[in-house]
Design a protein that fits this description.
Length: about 475
C-alpha cells in the first residue's frame, strides 16, 4: 500500500472524526452515531490510512497540542504565566496557573475529552486492522502508529489527571465505556510500556518526504524511555536511549535557532512534531499567535508569557536565551524593565506568522527531540563522567562552558536546570518537576501551593458515579 501524506488525507479523515466527535456526552460513550456507516467504512487498506490520519488530527485539537497541553504543562509550571490580561480567557488561565481552578474548567475538560477522542480514534484502528486485507508490513506500521498515538494521549492524561479510565478497545456501546474503572497512573504506565515496545517494532525508522510527520521507531522509543524514567526504571530507560543514539540517526542541529521556523520543520534533531499547516486547510495552529501576537507591545494580549524566574534561569551568554524569547525588556545592564502597560515578555522560538486568521499558522509543535534524548540518557546514568559529557553536548551548542561534578549544585539540580532552558515552552517542565519530585517545593518558591493533579472534569463524575475526584 502506498503511504499518503497526512494532509492529503485529512479531508477524508474528517469523516471518521465527525462521526466520533458528535456521538457522545462523555468520552466513555464512544460508539459512533451510525454503526452501519462505520462498519461499511472500515473495510480497506485505504480506509485504515484515513482512520489513522483521523487519530493524528486529534493532536491538533484545542484540547491537546493547540492549546490545553501548553496550559496544563507549561503554564502550570514556573516557566510561564498567562500574561497581564486577566479578563475573558485570561481569567480562566489565571485560576489554572494559581492551582485554584474548579472541576468545571472548560480548558481542563477539553484536555480530558479531546485526549480521549484521540484514544478512541486509535482504538478503532487497533480493533479493526487485523480484519483488513493488506500487506503485513503496512498493517504493523499502522498498528504501530496507533499504539504510539494512543500512548502519547494516555501519557498526557496520566501526567495531568493521574487516576483515569483506560479503554484499550473500540467501544461498541455506551455501556462498555461506562463500565470502565479509574486506574492509577502507575498502572497506565505499565500498559504503555509493552504498547510502545510493540509500536517501535512495527514502525519505520524514517519516511519519505511525502510522509514526514508520521510516528517513527525513534518516536516510540523516546516516549518509552520517558515513561521508564517516570516509573523510576532508569536501567531500562538507559537501554532504550542508547539504542536511539546508536541506531536511529538523529543529531543536534548546529545552531539552536535552526530548530524553529517554517524552513526547519522536521529537521535532523526532530523526533516527533505535531504537524500544522495554515492556509485555510483546517489544520493551522493558534498557539504561535497566542504566544506572540502582533499587538504584543501595545495590548499585552498574548498568553503563555515567560516568567521572570524563567528568564533568570539562563546563564550569562546562553545562546538559547535570545532565540527562545524576546529580549527588548532587558536593558544593557541585564536588568528587567517594563513599559507603561506590562512587562514585555513573550516567546519567539516557535516563530510568528502574519496570517489573516490568528488560528491559522503553519508552525509545528515539537513534542520529542534529540536533545531531550541526550539529557534523559544523562538522567538514566546518574552523576558520572559520561552523564556530564551528554549534558555538555547540549551546552556546547548553547555556547556555554562545560559543567562537572565540581560545579555548584547537585547533579539533579544541574540536570533539571539544563532541561528547563533547553526545552523551555515545549511542554516538558511540569512533567519534569513531578518526575524529579520537586513540583511542590518549586511552586512554593513562586508563592503558590501546588496541586500535583488536575481535578477530574465534573461532567465525568456526573456520568460515571463510581469515579472519585482527585
Amino acid at each position: 500500500m502506498k503511504l499518503k501524506n497526512i494532509y492529503i488525507q485529512l479531508a477524508a479523515g474528517m469523516l471518521t472524526a465527525g462521526m466520533l466527535a458528535s456521538c457522545s456526552d462523555s468520552f466513555t460513550n464512544l460508539s459512533p452515531v451510525s454503526q452501519r456507516n462505520v462498519n461499511s467504512f472500515y473495510n480497506t487498506a485505504s480506509d485504515m490510512t484515513t482512520a489513522i490520519n483521523a487519530a493524528y488530527k486529534a493532536l491538533q485539537l484545542n484540547g491537546t497540542y493547540n492549546q490545553s497541553y501548553w496550559i496544563t504543562q507549561e503554564m502550570r509550571s514556573d516557566n510561564t504565566d498567562q500574561g497581564p490580561d486577566g479578563t475573558g480567557l485570561g481569567a480562566d488561565l489565571t485560576v489554572i496557573e494559581n492551582f485554584v481552578e474548579n472541576s468545571t474548567s472548560e480548558l481542563i475538560t477539553l484536555a480530558y475529552t479531546d485526549s480521549y477522542l484521540g484514544i478512541a480514534r486509535s482504538n478503532i484502528v487497533l480493533s479493526r486492522i487485523d480484519g483488513i486485507d493488506m500487506p503485513d508490513a503496512d498493517r504493523e506500521r499502522i498498528r504501530g502508529e496507533a499504539l504510539f498515538l494512543r500512548s502519547l494521549f494516555f501519557y498526557n492524561l496520566a501526567i495531568s489527571f493521574g487516576n483515569i479510565p483506560m479503554p484499550l478497545t473500540e467501544a461498541k456501546s455506551s455501556s462498555e465505556g461506562l463500565a470502565l474503572a479509574q486506574i492509577p497512573a502507575s498502572e497506565v504506565y505499565k500498559q504503555l510500556i509493552p504498547d510502545l515496545i510493540k509500536a517501535e517494532s512495527g514502525l519505520l525508522v524514517k519516511y519519505d518526504a511525502a510522509n514526514v510527520g508520521r510516528a517513527t521507531k525513534g518516536a516510540a522509543a523516546t516516549l518509552l524511555a520517558k515513561i521508564y524514567l517516570t516509573t523510576g526504571d532508569k536501567q531500562s530507560a538507559e537501554m532504550v536511549l542508547r539504542r536511539i543514539v546508536a541506531t536511529y540517526g538523529y543529531s543536534l542541529v548546529p545552531d539552536y535557532s535552526n530548530l524553529w521556523g517554517l524552513a526547519n520543520k522536521n529537521n535532523a534533531e526532530s523526533i516527533f512534531e505535531v504537524q500544522f499547516k495554515g492556509g485555510a486547510t483546517g489544520t493551522g495552529n493558534a498557539f504561535t499567535n497566542a504566544f506572540s501576537p502582533t499587538l504584543k507591545h501595545s495590548t499585552g494580549a498574548y498568553k503563555n508569557r515567560p516568567t521572570q524566574d524563567m528568564i533568570k534561569a539562563y546563564e550569562a551568554g546562553d545562546d538559547r536565551f535570545i532565540k527562545s524569547m524576546d529580549t527588548s525588556y532587558v536593558n544593557t545592564q541585564g536588568v528587567l524593565v517594563t513599559n507603561t502597560k506590562n512587562d514585555i515578555r513573550y516567546i519567539v522560538k516557535f516563530g510568528r506568522e502574519n496570517v489573516f486568521e490568528e488560528t491559522d499558522a503553519s508552525y509545528n509543535f515539537m513534542v520529542l527531540r534529540y536533545a531531550d534524548v541526550l539529557l534523559m540518557l544523562a538522567e538514566s546514568l546518574g552523576e558520572s563522567t559520561e552523564a556530564y559529557a551528554l549534558i555538555n553536548q547540549v551546552r556546547a551548542r548553547a555556547k556555554l562552558a562545560p559543567v562537572s561534578a565540581s560545579t555548584s549544585g547537585t547533579f539533579a539540580q544541574k540536570l533539571l536546570r539544563e532541561r528547563r532552558v533547553e526545552l523551555a515552552f515545549e511542554n516538558q517542565r511540569w512533567a519534569d518537576l513531578l518526575r524529579f519530585g520537586v513540583a511542590e517545593e518549586t511552586m512554593k518558591a513562586q508563592g503558590k501551593t501546588a496541586r500535583p493533579l488536575f481535578l477530574i472534569p465534573q461532567r465525568e463524575l456526573d456520568i460515571n458515579k463510581s469515579y472519585s475526584q482527585n
